[in-house]
Amino acid sequence: MAxxxxxxxxxxxxxxxxxxxxxxxxxxxxxxxxxxxxYNSPIKVILTAHEQGAAHxxxxxxxxxxxxxxxxxxxxxxxxxxxxxxxxxFMDSIPVVAITGxxxxxxxxxxxxxxxxxxxxxxxxxxxxYLVKDVRDMARVxxxxxxxxxxxxxxPVLIDLxxxxxxxxxxxxxxxxxxxxxxxxxxxxLIDRAAIHRAAEAIAQSKQPIIYAGxxxxxxxxxxxxxxLAHKTxxxxxxxxxxxxxxxxTDSLSLGMLGMHGFEYTNYAVAQxxxxxxxxxxxxxxxxxxxxxxxxxxxxxxxxVDPSSINKTVVVDYxxxxxxxxxxxxxxxxxxxxxxRAWLATIQKMRQEYPLLYREKEKLLPQFIIQEISExxxxxAVVATGVGQHQMWTAQFYQFNRPRSMITSGGLGxxxxxxxxxxxxxxxxxxxxxxxxxxxxxxxxxxxxxxTASKHKLPIKVAIMNNxxxxxxxxxQDLFYQGRHAQSEINPVDFVRLAEAYGCVGIRVEKKDDVRxxxxxxxxxxxxxTVMDFVVEETEDCWPMIxxxxxxxxxxxxxxxxxxxxxxxxxxRSDPDEExxxxxx
Amino acid sequence: xxxxxxxSCLVENHFGVxxxxxxxxxxxxxxIDSLTVSTTEDPTISRMTIVVDADAxxxxxxxxxxxxxxxxxEVQELKEGQFIDRELLLARVSVDGRSRAEMESIVRNFxxxxxxxxxxxxxxxxAGDTHTLDRLVEQLRSYGITKLVRTGRVALEKQ
Lengths: 585, 159
What we know:
The complex is a heterodimer of chains A (585) and B (159). Chain A is an alpha/beta fold.
């Protein structure tokens, strides 16, 4: 008979077996037994400043590594503080296990101190959740939680642990087998070969095809297969925001990002294509604009691991449900290349005719700064962002070449995500150069996590595009609310002194000539975080833009309109070699 | 075109499963006409019969979303004519000396019975498919229904 162990100890044993190396969180009354059991374990526990930070760190860790991120919080306010982070992970299908304390079973429902119905509150934002009322369920629940979080379409799973379940003792029997009868994931035998064959035929017959790749390519580690498909068929690839890095932007077939703030030529190409091949992407409204008008001339293929993503917003002609990697392997085996030479030439012409552009202004421009960061890091950094203009400029001007290099909140659009996500990413990949490109609005929602970064001497570089506004809100107010800036202006903050207060290096940059030296200086600092306060133009808008509900060929802030306003074309620093582009096919 | 559809689900017999299912459906703004749940021959499994008003695409979404729930073991749409469905109705109806006999005759025609009877009202008990009970309610209406409750549809697939 196995020795008896406390529930919290069983939890720790299970976490070790799941390969958990680090967990982020804050102790409190109801999860003290858990923290106590972790105290002498090999699992590194990172104290965060706020539970929201813990959830975003677990998320950033998961996005950067592909492993399950773990966060810990006590009952009541601890758990409710996780909510934004859990919802963020849920919307972007990120594998996170959140372990919360709960009041003891006998007083659940009595409005006990620090009690909240955590399972109820998080039900719509988790893939699944467990309340462990009996210590004998602990090992099975932890095993299932990690399995569910990381398989199929990944997502957050919450385990709510009443104090008594963590202090009660039972035998520790590790469940080798997992048997969840209601959990169906599409495995290889279930791949729909007939559907793949029909899709392959549609590809062979297409004249103007485009691949639209999403985060599923990254979650499903299908980058090699996607590259093979593109190269084999000479079909150009655009990605969603979360798909950035899933296809190298240095590749001559890369079209960068599509959608609301996607490239002008890319959106025109999408509007013109006759076959749209959606791979691990969910036709989000920021991508499609008006769904009925999205790629309206095109037949559509949609490969997705989650059947509920198919036909959700856009009705498709060739649905393929299955693991993206396995589907692409089969597709690559049978697909015949269409003749796309004329199509690629058309796209190339549009690329040259409609580049991104902006006009130099007196103050610094975020686009320029991000281009410089991209250049100096050679596109090899892991880049986290907040949400807003700086996020879109990062998507446009940073060249993403590797999977798991863009760490951003796409679906939920969570401001304040950048710094804690960057911290999580750095813990997961200690050797990577990790940046947080942030806005002054976003940054101030989770600034306190500088304390966490500083304590662990993380060499994160925080680049704040400080325009003293909620810039995207200000832009929309100018566009759609007659310039009435209702609460979009932010009081100026001295981020250099703030950084120093937290034990970080603070650098203020106000001139164009100082940008490069400042980035170089930050990159040389390896023993603590650096916060760079880039004082940028307040009125700069993020272009181009598809206004909500408009089709892709009716964009605002197009090349033509900006050129008339005096804009100067900005070719991305390392655009794919033009010669290679033209010679392709 | 929006239509009524009957979905039959086998779910884990845990606490919280009903909340997951109803929460999922309401979060997507689908209207539930009725939802019944009870245990099956296997005490670890419950059966839910859900009647929703939805067009074909929305219905497909409901089924797919239900399938995503870990606690949902099986989802089946019951197609018109391929299932047997029943619901139970209880109605308190006002009567007087003259109408009591008529009432009893109506109830008999519908295979129901009087569950309770006093001076000026009766409680009618009837089981049947939704359409049949709708007709019964129509006929009772003129007498004055003071309280009405229906269980919602339970259904089993035909062999």
